[in-house]
Every structure is written in structure tokens, then in C-alpha cells.
Specification:
The structure is a homotrimer of 434-residue chains.
Chain A lengths: L1 E5 L18 E2 L2 E2 H10 L8 E5 L4 H8 L4 E4 L6 H7 L9 E4 L3 E3 L1 H8 L6 E7 L7 E6 L2 E7 L10 E9 L2 H10 L7 H11 L4 E6 L3 E3 L5 H10 L5 E2 L4 E2 L4 E3 L2 E3 L4 E2 L4 E3 L2 E3 L4 E2 L4 E3 L2 E2 L4 E2 L4 E3 L2 E2 L4 E2 L3 E3 L2 E2 L4 E2 L4 E2 L9 E5 L2 E7 L5 E2 L4 E2 L4 E2 L4 E2 L4 E2 L4 E2 L7 E5 L3 E5 L4 H14 L2
Parallel strand pairs in A: 1-4, 1-6, 4-5, 8-12, 14-17, 15-18, 16-19, 17-20, 18-21, 19-22, 20-23, 21-24, 22-25, 23-26, 24-27, 25-28, 26-29, 28-31, 29-34, 30-35, 31-36, 34-37, 35-38, 36-39, 38-40
Antiparallel strand pairs in A: 2-3, 6-11, 7-13, 8-11, 9-10, 32-33
Helix pairs in contact in A: 5-6
């Protein structure tokens, strides 16, 4: 059996974030490693994994996922079919489980599909409660009769949506079909399955109603964060220094080397990475903070996902996603609620997308700096390596590698004496006798 | 005996505040109800009260003051005489006590005037220490000989000022006089008393030197707040959740359903209304906070009167009056002290009035929103339903239903590498061997 | 023996600070008094001290240093030779120790030079580790052969630099030489010593490798502050009120009359002057705070030197020097780190001087006021009696007696209803039946 992870795609809709989504870390581990660990828990070995990466991420993948696994490189991101075919020589004669590692679900999904005995292929079918613009499975007696792409609300043939956790017992047959399918669009993979079903291959659904999310837009990271934070228990690694007046409440992980200063309150669920310093009086709630962050004096971090090596100093970071190596000057704030109380919408590739969130702070890529007393408006995206000057109100997205600052007119006046100074001057004159 | 409350007037000088002054709540109860309760404590019953309201407030009055009381409606606010005459049919044959419920005084004032046996009428005479621009009572052997309106400093006939707590034993006579008095100005009531005194009616003074204030301008609310706060004892209602590290010091009332978070300090006298949440590290001193307010993380509220349903988040609210349903973004501040240390003056109906306060923050009507990191200058008035954008310095009054925001020129520059980035780039080049 | 303190000079490079450097207070005592006390510890008496002041400071010097000491006044600041000659009548027939009291060094330096028995003159020679632009001592067998002014890096004749702690056993001879030396530059004193050495006078070096700093630029105050803070032990004067939840850690002096409020943390070394109030939640680290300062609610003071009578209110004061009687409004901040991570450079008399510090906040003279939410950029100097308006970003130096404020364009718009208001309006309409 081979597990095939499709890691070659490029997530343009994740702008300004630049990392591959499956490399995002949760609870101290990249998402892709969470997938592997779930599968290892079911008996899979490192050598059973095949990764299709791209030229930019294959080295990182190898480093992370081990030398016993196998790797293929998809030169350009041409879709799922191309990805599978890129790796075809590594899959011959094997049962294969194809997984999109940007999807997040519970280990039970793997368990259920792997123990499925019936059928030649099996597809994870996610039970939805409301319309989702994906592929719906038409099912009769557990057998999939058709996959209907985006049927439109009210026209769904079932409540089961196709999740890319696909088991194909006969990979050779599947690959042959893939190679023979023609399409001018990016849907060769879907057409292949369609053709196979029509040709009478026995495709089964594995119903799943646990947690599932696909990281499509940056704000979906919140869902994943919440999922992982809800899986943790309280765990404070030995040697973590916590001042007596600090309070750690609920399910909170604090990793090795961290220091928690006076009067800090951390309300779980929350994750504090290695070697973090949480400064005096800070409050952290429902957040995920990477390694080596310094959360300086009197900072509040609420429902935020923070990368590694970030610095804060008396800030409010709420409902925000902050990349690695970002720093915030004193008093800088991510506003997270519109004054008109509307949902926050974000323009993604010329389309204005309603995030369906009325609380959303900022989305900031790696290595940004924010000046003191700056204010970033809800839903603003800051590109990597950018700088926001002191006292700036940021109402629009900022591209990578830019400096934004405010250049207003300042007035200079001669000072007249204050009441106190006048009084003192009068006293002085009286003392001197004139 | 009938108690006649004059509730029909309109307090233009209270702008931007829109509520009737006697409906302001102190210690959980509207001012008018404090008056009623004081009188009930002296044996009066609900049916003994008569209210002259106006079309806008009579429903609210009925709801508050009970069905057994009697109500009259003054169509337009034409002064005290008109108010009394509006209610004349409810007063026939009764002793009457006429009260301006916008005045605040101690229960003893009622007690003293009600137990006064001598004379046909009695007037509460407030002992002043310095000149007050009101009506002064010329008194001989307890009998009032004349009422001198605004005599001017140094020309006062006594130190007793006429407070509208007026007892008339023979209401029919008083009403007849009122009806017969003619004036082209808004002084029919005063002229009536003048005429009666001159005609030999026996008007007595009831001297009073306890607390008294008339709410004329918004900042007089501070006096009333202080008065009520000084009457309270420590009282924390059962079930209020207070974190162990919080500290409640002095005379503080905390109403039911409130929650006090970690490291909060509340220094009495202070009043915290029902279902309030006081967030981590906040400091509240000498303030009065209405129901259902959320005083978020690290907020300082000092000597302020706050309405219901307000939200704060890391703010300083000092010497300010804040209406209902207002919200303040992170870092917003009410500056309360001029940099030139002068008293704060406020323009009221074309007149610049010296508040005689050198500490005065902002006066904000209902349902306003203040953006993050905004600064409101001392004495600024914000009309109801207005919004102040993020990072705005508000130096002037803002009318109701407006949005004020700053639209400055922002500069965008390409970023050059930082020292650290240059160092890293050099290290990278060295590693790569060039 | 006479100790001659040269107090007549004017430190232009200390702009914007206006005090004489030797009058700066450390650990409750002016620098000049520290010098005196060190020498008194070695047996010197008040009458043994001679001060050369200038017309502006001689009164203050007399007041501080006592009536038994002797004083001379240098009319204009004409250099060291002129200073010594100004006091020559007070020095006749005495051994003299000439000291520049703007230098700070350990008491052992005095001890060593005073117990030196050999030679006719002795000079304190400070052992440097790296090039310093001063006078280097060429030494053979403890005898000084030459003093080489600013030889340039790599051309130093030794590692010993001339510090103005100079012992001359025969003051009459020294004065005679001074009077005979001619120069068109400000180097008569140096030339005199040069001539004497060449004429065969026996000048000895007293080597010294303890702490030494000359206060040349304002930021050198940090060195002196650190030196003094490193000499202290924990000492909290009786009667200081410290709330139970406050924490004083390490070597901290708190002087009489101070009050420390709830949840304060003070991390030594630190000095808190008389009658200071340290407000709730504040954090003070490695700082020196003068008398009667109010460090209001939630303020962080880190590695700063603060004068007397300053007021803070929710500020960050980091790596800054703040004069007397300054006040900071809520949310005002001294930024102390450039967003480009460069060292901070400061223009001193047309020369851009690299402070060699990458952390430097602001340098503020006496009696300045900073408005709420203002941001002062790293290394900015604020002249005395100046005011910075609310919400101002100060990027350039501000001269004394100025008011700087921002006058930007503000927009006013009619407010449209919020989602909530629309909902309420709809509910209202439904209730009313239309």
C-alpha cells in the first residue's frame, strides 16, 4: 500500500501567505507530519509514503518526511491527474490512497477508509449540513453512481461531498485510465473517476461526519487551529518557568524553554511554542503561538495564529494570522471588528470574498514590521518583508517589500506660558520685589 | 398631600446628552425613583405623586413610576407655571409639594420641609458659601420677605437660595394666583410667589445645608455621581464571580451577574452594574458603570459616568460621561487634561461656559463608536450615533449621526534591506561560496 | 592639599539637556557630591575643596557643596588652563588634585593617585581596550615621557589614556608654567604639561582599569546610570507602602515616601526616588527614576533615566533620558529601535554622531509635555518647555519652547445605519405592523 500525498500545488488564494499550506505548523508539527503520524498509528511505515512535490518544496519535504519515503517532482502545477502520473512509477502494483494534505480531518477518516473491504475504489464522503460548492456523490447501496460537481444549492443529489482521500486498490488500472482521459480543463482526475464509474468499476463511499476543513483561504487557518487546539490537554513541559502570579487555565500546551512572567493569564485552549517569553500582564486566549516568540509587556493575543520568532510589545492581536519573524511596536493594534459591524470581505484574485467572519484582524506574511501606535484595519493583508511606519492607520492591503508611512503636515508654534508657568513667573517676580 | 414633579422641561444645555436628566440612573435607579423612594420613606404613597411630563417622556414615566400615580402632559415646555397649571385638576383641595426632580439633595430636605408646621407656604433655602446665580431669599424671623433673582455677587440679601422644593398648603389659592399672573417672560411662577408674598401670604424658609446640586450642564452629572457614590457601603451581590487575584477596595457595589477577571483593581467608591464584565488588569476608581458593560483587558476608568451596554478595550476613560451602547476600540483614549493646564470651557448655545474643571474628558451621547488608537481631546462632545475612525485626534465637537475620520496622505516606498537581512544575505553568499 | 573641581565649562554637546553634567543626580545625590563623598572617605574635608564654577552655577554649587569649600568663578568658559588660573590664589603653596567632575570613575582611582608617593605630578592613566580619541601616555618605567593627543587607531604609544585626575605637588610651579604657556587654541593646559615633561619634571602614571566614563553626549548618561545602579544593594526605606501583589526583585532602592501599587513589578537594578507613586501593573526595569514621579497605570519604564516630578500614564519609556517635570499622556511612547535595525545617529553641532546604540529612545529636556497616543521616534531630542500634541509622530528634533502638533485633514460623512441598527429598525417596523 502506498499513501500518495499531493504536495505540488500552489495556493494563490492564500496570498499574502507564501508557505505551502501543509507546512503550516500546529501543536509543534507541520500539517503534513500530522497526516503521516495518523497513518503511522494505523501501521503505515515511512517507506509507504509517496510525495509529489514541486521544485520549491521537495527538499523541505524530504527533510521533514524522511529518507525512506519516496518523492516525485511535478515541474509545473498542472492538477491532480498530472501529480499522480508524475509519481506513477512509484505506485505500480500497489494499492494507493491519494490524499490532499491541505485537507484537515480526524484520524478516524483514515481508519474508516483503510478498513473498507468492499469495492475497487473508495472515496471519503463528507456529510455536509448545508450547501458546499464541491463534488457531490450520488450513492446507491453504498455504491457511488456519479460525482456531480457543484450542483447548486437545492440540487444536491445527496449530502455527501467528495473529499480527496481516495483509495484505489488497482493503481495500474487507475493510472491507465488517467493516461487515457483527455480534457482541455483542469479536471482530468475527476473525469477519470467518472469514466471508471460509468465503466462499472465498483466505487464505494466511506461516510465521514467528523471534523473536516480544506485550507483554501488564509482565514481557514483559524478552523484548523481551533480543531487542533480542541484536541489538546493541559501540558506544561518540565523546566518551563512560570511566575507564581501567572495563571494557566484550561487546556494549554507550553513547550520547553518558555518563560511566563508575572500576572500573565493564559486561557486555554492555547499553544505556546518552544522558548517563548510571555511578558508581564499579557493575556493569551484561544491562540496558537510558534517558537521563540516574545509576547512583550501587556499584550493581548486572542484567537490568533502566530508563526515563529515574532515580537510583540503592548499590542492587541485578535483574530489575526501573523507569519514568522514579524514584530509589532508598542501600541500597534490589529482591529478585528468593523465599526459598521459588517462581515469582513477580502478581494482574492479580483473576486470579493465574504469571509463570513465579523471578527477578523489582519493577515500578515513573514518578516514584517509594524511601527508603534499603528492601527491595521480588519481584514487587511500585509505582504512579506513589509514595514508599516509609526502611527499609521492601514486601511488597504500592503504589497510585499514595501514601506508604508504617513507623511502629514505638522505645525510648529511658539509656546505661550502655561497657567502654572505664569503663576511661577508671578511668584518669582513677587519674590524679587517687582 | 400631593407631590408634584415637574418633568416636562427640555434640557438643551445638556447637549449632546438626550435623556431627561431625572431619568439618569444612579446606583441602579433613575433619579426620579430616588426622589420617590425618599418620599415613600416619609410615608407618601404612589397615589400621592403627580407627574407633569411631556409627550416624549410620559410613557416612560408611567412605566417607571407606577399606575397609581397621576400624570399630566405639558404639550410644549412653557415653564414652571404652565407645568403646574397643566396638572391643576389633579391638585385641587390638596396641600402640594412642588419639586424639580433635576435637583439632587439629601432626603433630609424632604423631611424638614414636610414637618414644617408654620406658614402657608414653605421654600427650601439652600445655604450657599459663595455666590450662585439663583433667587435669594430675604428673610426676617423665618418669614420670606422677598425673592431677589440673581442679585449679583456682594449684593446678596442672605446666604439662602431658592430651591424648587416648594410647599403650598392651599393649592387652590396658589393656582388662582398663578392663573392671574401675567408676564411676557418665563417667570410667571416667580412673579406669582412674589405677588403672594407682597399680598401678605406667610412664606417660610426651610433652611438646608446638606448636599445639593442642580443638573444644568452635563458635567454636573459628576457631582451627582459623587454624591450617590458617597452614600454607598461595600456590597457585592451573591453570585458575582471575582477572581482571586482581583481586589475590591473601599465602598464598591457590584450588582448581580457581574464578573471580575484576574488582577483587576476596583477602588471605591464605585458602582458596577448588572452583568458587567471587568477584564484582566483593569482599574476602576471613583466611577459609576451601568449594566451589561464590558470593560475589556487593561482598561482604566477613573471618575467617569458610564451608561449601559458599553464596551471598552484597553482604554483610558477619565472624567468622562459616556452614554449607552458606546464602544471604544483598543487604545482609544479620552484625554482629560489640557496640555496648557487651563480649565476646560465648553460652548453651550453660543456661550463659552467655564466648567471650572481642569480635569474633564469627553461627553458622549448614546450609541457612538470610537476606532482603535483614537484620541478625544478634553471637553469634546460627541453626538449620538456617531463614529470616530481609527487613529483620529478629535479636537472639536462631533454632531450626531456623523462619521469622522482622518484621511491623510500615505507614502509608499520600496523597502531596502535591513542590517539583519544584509547580514543574512552575506552569510548566504559566503555559504554558497561566492 | 586642595581638590580643584573644574565646573566652569558648558556642555554644548549635551543639547537638549541644559543642566551641568556634574549636577545630574544618581542614587539620590548629584554627581559632584559623589566625587566629594569619595574623597571625604579618604580623609579630605569640605575646606579642602575648591570649585571653579561659572556665573550660572556658582550659587547652586555653593548651596550643594557647603560654605567651608572655596569657590572661584570663571566668567567665560575658556578652557582648563583658564579655570585653574581663575582659582590660583586659592591654591598657592598647596598640593593640588585637579579633577573634571564630568568624568565618572570608581573611588579606587582617587585612592590610588592620592597614595602615589613618587614623582612631582601624577596622572590617572585609564587602560583602554580599544582606540579612544583622547591623549595617550607614553610611559617608561612609570614615568610619563609624552602625551600624544589623538594619535589615531593603531598608532597608540600605549594603552593608557589621560584622565583629568591630575596631581601636582608643587602648585606654584604648575601655575607659573600655565601662565607662561601660550597657545592660540584651547590647549594651554595640555601644552603646559608637555613643556613641564620636556623640562624634566617627573610625571608619573597611576594606572587604572576600573569603571570610567566621560559624559560627553547625553546618551553617556546611560553608562553612568548603569554604573551607579550596579553599585547598589536592595534597600527599601521604612514606611514605603508596597501592595502585597507588587514584586520587587533584585537590587532596587526605593526612597522614603514612595508608594507601589498593585501588580507592579520592579526588576533591579533600579532606583525609585522619594515620594514616587508607581501605579497599577507598571513594570520598571534597569531604570533610575527621580523624586516625586508618578508612574501611572500600566506604564513600562525600561533602561531609562528619569528626572524629578515627571508624570507617566500608560506609556513605554525605553532607553530614554527624560528631564525634570515632564509629563506623558496616555499611550504616548518613546520608540527605541529603528524599523531598519540600524544604530541611532544624532546630529551634534553639524556632525552626525553614531551613538553606537541600536536601542535608544528619546532625549527630553525639562518641563516638556507629550500628548496622548503620540509616538517619538528613536534618538529624537526634545528641547525644554516644549509640547507635543496628541497623536503626533515626532520624527525630528524639537527645539525648546515650541508646540508641535499635527494638523491633518479630517473627513466628515453622514452615517448610514449599521447592520444592527437596520435590524432594530426592521424589528421596530414589524412590531408596529408595517
Amino acid at each position: 500500500m502506498k499513501i500518495l500525498f499531493l504536495c505540488g500545488g500552489i495556493g494563490k488564494r492564500m496570498y499574502p501567505l507564501e508557505e505551502d499550506k501543509f507546512l503550516l505548523k500546529f501543536i509543534g508539527k507541520e500539517l503534513i507530519l500530522h497526516h503521516m503520524d495518523h497513518l503511522k498509528g494505523l501501521g503505515l511505515k515511512e517507506k509507504d509514503f509517496v510525495f509529489v512535490g514541486n521544485p520549491s518544496n521537495v527538499d523541505k519535504l524530504k527533510e521533514l518526511c524522511g529518507e525512506d519515503a519516496e518523492y516525485a517532482v511535478q515541474k509545473t502545477p498542472k492538477g491532480m491527474a498530472d501529480a499522480v502520473l508524475t509519481a506513477k512509477d512509484l505506485l505500480r502494483g500497489e494499492e494507493i490512497l491519494i490524499v490532499n494534505p491541505n485537507d484537515v480531518f480526524e484520524p478516524s477518516a483514515y481508519e474508516e477508509i483503510l478498513k473498507k473491504k468492499e469495492g475497487e475504489s473508495a472515496i471519503l464522503g463528507y456529510k455536509v449540513c448545508k450547501y458546499f460548492p464541491g463534488g457531490y456523490l450520488t450513492v446507491e447501496n453504498e455504491k457511488i453512481k456519479e460525482i456531480v460537481e457543484k450542483p447548486g444549492e437545492g440540487k444536491e443529489p445527496s449530502n455527501l461531498v467528495n473529499i480527496v482521500v481516495h483509495l484505489h486498490r488497482n493503481s495500474d488500472e487507475f493510472i491507465r485510465y488517467l493516461e487515457e482521459t483527455e480534457s482541455e480543463q483542469d479536471d482530468v482526475y475527476e473525469r477519470t473517476m467518472d469514466r471508471m464509474i460509468k465503466d462499472g468499476f465498483d466505487f464505494r463511499v466511506v461516510e465521514y461526519d467528523g471534523f473536516w476543513t480544506a485550507i483554501k483561504y488564509p482565514w481557514h487557518i483559524f478552523n484548523v487551529m481551533e480543531y487542533f487546539l480542541n484536541t489538546i490537554d493541559k501540558q506544561i513541559v518540565n523546566g518551563v518557568k512560570i511566575q507564581e502570579s501567572a495563571k494557566i487555565e484550561g487546556n494549554v500546551i507550553i513547550e520547553a524553554g518558555a518563560e511566563i512572567f508575572e500576572n500573565v493569564v493564559i486561557k486555554g485552549p492555547a499553544y505556546i511554542g518552544k522558548d517563548c517569553v510571555i511578558g508581564n500582564n499579557s493575556l493569551i486566549r484561544g491562540s496558537h503561538i510558534g517558537d521563540r516568540c516574545v509576547v512583550g509587556y501587556s499584550t493581548e493575543i486572542k484567537h490568533a495564529y502566530i508563526g515563529n520568532d515574532c515580537w510583540f510589545h503592548t499590542n492587541y492581536i485578535g483574530d489575526s494570522i501573523i507569519g514568522n519573524e514579524c514584530s509589532f511596536g508598542y501600541g500597534a493594534v490589529t482591529a478585528n471588528f468593523r465599526l459598521d459591524e459588517k462581515n469582513i470581505s477580502i478581494k482574492v484574485e479580483d473576486e470579493l470574498v465574504d469571509t463570513e467572519l465579523d471578527k477578523l484582524g489582519c493577515i500578515m506574511a513573514n518578516n514584517c514590521k509594524v511601527g508603534v501606535n499603528s492601527s491595521i484595519m480588519p481584514g487587511v493583508r500585509i505582504g512579506s518583508n513589509s514595514i508599516i511606519g509609526a502611527g499609521t492607520v492601514v486601511t488597504k492591503d500592503l504589497e510585499p517589500n514595501k514601506i508604508l508611512f504617513f507623511e502629514g503636515e505638522q505645525m510648529l508654534r511658539e509656546k505661550r506660558m502655561t497657567v502654572k508657568e505664569k503663576k511661577e513667573e508671578r511668584m518669582e517676580r513677587i519674590k524679587r520685589g517687582y
